[in-house]
Amino acid sequence: MSKESEDEELAQLIEPCLARYKLSFPDATPEEISLYKPRYMMLLRMQKRHEVYFSTSNTPSKFSVAEILHNEISKFFSQGMLQASVNFAALANAAVHSRLNILPEDYPLEHMREQIALDFAFTPCQKSSKLIRVFAAPGDAESVLKVLDFDSQDLRDPYRHMKYFKFMIRTPSNDLSAFFERAKTAALAGETRAFTVLGIHLEDMELIDRRHKKSQAMAFTFFTHHFVLCIAREGFRVYQSWGGLGYGLNEYLTLNGTRLRDWAEAVEFLKNFKLLSQPQTHWTQAINNAYEHCFEINMLEMCGDGKPGDPIVPVYRPWVQVVEYKDVKASDVTKFTWS
Predict the structure, then answer these.
(1) What are phi and psi of 139, to 5 degrees?
(2) Which of its termini does the chain have fewer beta carbons within 10 Å around, N or C?
(3) Closest C-alpha to 248, from 21, 77, 2, 53
(4) Residue partners of 75: CB distance under 8 A and separation at least 6
């Protein structure tokens, strides 16, 4: 089936979704309701894409470290998004006190939990990436704190964005394929069959540069995206979310986006990501297709006049950083205890 025919089929399913939205928000105007069409289309495409991949050819062992990690993440969301956010806040509080045992006093007070749900939501890609990397990090509180602080360094530092930009300027962009191939080789070699977790940052250098200089228009949508690849003997998984009108990590889990993928899919994923890692004079259809393949978001549908998001940044200047966690053990993944 062509993409056009598939979109026509999915479009017929959107109206009931919009009808349910109108019931939930009866005061919403037709214009406001129409802004949600791209999001519903994205979720339907994601569901259709991943539901056809139920295969027994690469069924994971329930005792593999990769599967233990996947089960821990699934369990983290088993009581809903609010409780997951509260638990993550408690985990961070424990780590600040150099503990991996989460105690009752680490949990936020009841009246603070709605705000905590906003602060620790798993829709922003950075938060979802941190959650996976926190579980993959070595089994000590210092390593957990390093993950929690990695993206922002010191949040109280008013110059943190400038420092991060300077770091990007002087640091070459990483080649994800090289990291992935090394992880795959480790996963398939000998009896050890090491499990590797890669935290990937695709950064929008153009908008970061504009923010740094404060001299050009900023009303554009960032294409910045943080996500995690987990590479094991049986294949690889992708863990991600996309903020705003995209999807949360809990939705990505529910829609089977985190399914086990085979090596043939890895080739396609890396080919598309290689295109995303190369600078271009502007956002092209080829970049858009590669972005949707890797991250499930059609930016041309989401961004621009009359669409939910601001226009796409006019110059495509990507920068990639890969954070590598080698030979992750089951003891690393299960390091937290909850009281």
Answers:
(1) -80, 55
(2) N
(3) 77
(4) none
